[in-house]
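Researcher: Next sequence.
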Amino acid sequence: MLTLEAMMLAFLAVAGWVRQTSGPFRPHPLSAFDKSKAAALLDSRLPCLGCHELNGRGGRIGPPLTELRTRRSPDYVYAMITDPQRAAPGTVMPRVPMSRGMVDLIASYLLEGSGPAAPPEPARPKTSSGAAPTGPAVPADPAALYARFCSACHGAQGNGDGPNAVFLRVRPAAHASADAMSARSDDALFDTIYAGGYVMNRSNFMPPFGETLTREHIWMLVRYIRSLCHCQGPAWSRNHR
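Model: Next structure:
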């Protein structure tokens, strides 16, 4: 008997939304429904526009997505969405868990445009072991860790006023605010960093870092946030042992 996952993959394959396991990625022609679905996902589900501009909307941390097909090849776009560290070793862009069907849809949507298509990307050298890097260079110092992954939106001092904040429709959390942070447990802060804002019913433009940073690094960030706000979480959430 087919599992639910196998049935869904079979359906997506029939619908043309599952990439073959080998060969170059070829963007799919999009129906009006496909375009509306991709736009809705980018607007209210995925974190992409928290860092990247698309048609005048979105952040300015990463390269713009407008007319992306004129600057990047389909394979590169697909690789960056699927595994940023393999495509661009050392990037701070986190890996966002997506189904293969969703990756195909978003990549195809971003590669639409009227300009000429970019040529194929040059081959990138592999590491000596033949494996791609699995994560970015992560500072061991909590302040440096925060500066690298958080300050562009949340501000160098955690005031929610990073250079990217002005481009976001929801102001980033002010980690230096004792009023705001004392209402959130350490576990809630961890889960937001790990799984992203969408999962925690907050802004979807807050990306998930659970597949990019280790649990230890995320707990380092939680403790650093506590140092910024000089506060603890709600009394019920503290360890009373």
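Model: Strands lie at 53-54, 57-58. Residues 45 and 204 are 6 Å apart (CA to CA).
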